[in-house]
Amino acid sequence: MRRQLLILTAFLLAACSTSAIAADSLALQIASLKEWRAGAVVSGRAVEAFGGLDSCFLSEPIPERVWLAMQGKTFRPNAHIRRDDLRHVRALHRDAEGRILIGELVCNKLIADRLVRILRKLYASRYAIERMVLPDVYDGDDERQMRANNTSCFNYRPIAGTERLSKHARGLAIDINSLYNPYFKVRKDGRRIVQPATAERYLNRKRAFRYKITAGDLCCRLFKSEGFEWGGDWRSCKDYQHFELRD
């Protein structure tokens, strides 16, 4: 009898401990949502406790903490774009393992609502996006963030290898799953350009691999339906990660 009581007591203590750990985990996830910590993994239960999907998919003026993080990285004083021209987009996304992650983007106000609609539909369809943190995490270094397979939008920078401003510099373009969907060009002198430099293996678009964007997939269809063009359709080069607002 004594042995049975000891076993029952141990079981109840373990159950209480597990319940406490679960409660602590849920509280931490809700805190991550309240502070909008991009990259944090959360549960559907935490999302509901936070206020549901309407609280997780929205655009807003650039918060002060985001604006401060952008200085000298993705933003520098210029004559083309101002803080008021930009919006902060909150979104959830799922990775290839199905986990729910907190994501954020900075984009031009002209496309903010479109991005919110697209990202919410991608989330609802469990479309896999591995990472969606601000490129300022990588000091605005595009090569670094692409190697990390990051999804991002605004970055005040020129088109690689030129002095012309990229549409990213105006927040009118977005790159999705950038490692697995690289930029590729063969120059007139025969030199091959692959960005990121670690993505050579993903140039074979006949291969099956995770996070690949194709002409017929949901991501491509949604962006095109909202007035974007896909870099995978370009002839002079291929930019499989890239969607930009059509002129």
Cα shape: globular
Arrangement of strands in the largest sheet: 1-4-3-2
Q: What amount of the residues lies in strands?
A: 15-25%
Uncertain segments: 12-18
| Alpha plus pi helix count | 6
Order of helices and strands: HEHEHEEHHEEEHEEE
**Portion of residues in helices?**
25-40%
The total of beta strands comes to 10
Rg is 21 Å
Major pleated sheet: 4 strands, antiparallel
SSE-based structural type:
alpha+beta
Mean pLDDT: 92
Distance between the termini: 80 Å
Provide a descriptive summary of the structure in words.
- This protein is an alpha+beta fold and 247 residues long.
- Helix content is 30%, strand content 17%.
- The protein has helices at residues 2-35, 44-50, 64-70, 112-124, 142-147, 218-225, and strands at 41-42, 58-60, 86-94, 100-108, 173-175, 183-186, 192-195, 228-230, 238-239, 242-245.
- The strands form three sheets. The protein has a four-stranded antiparallel sheet with strand order 1-4-3-2, with helices on both faces.
- Strand 6 (183-186) and strand 7 (192-195) form a beta hairpin.
- The longest helix is centred in the first third of the chain and has 34 residues, at 2-35.
- The chain is globular and about 85 Å long.
- The protein starts with a helix and ends with a strand.
- Residues 12-18 have low confidence and may be disordered.
List keywords for this structure.
247 residues, alpha+beta, four-stranded antiparallel sheet, three-stranded antiparallel sheet, 6 helices, 30% helix, 17% strand, globular
Helix/strand layout:
Layout: H1 2-35, E1 41-42, H2 44-50, E2 58-60, H3 64-70, E3 86-94, E4 100-108, H4 112-124, H5 142-147, E5 173-175, E6 183-186, E7 192-195, H6 218-225, E8 228-230, E9 238-239, E10 242-245
Antiparallel strand pairs: 1-4, 2-3, 3-4, 5-10, 6-7, 6-9, 8-10
Helix pairs in contact: 1-2, 4-6
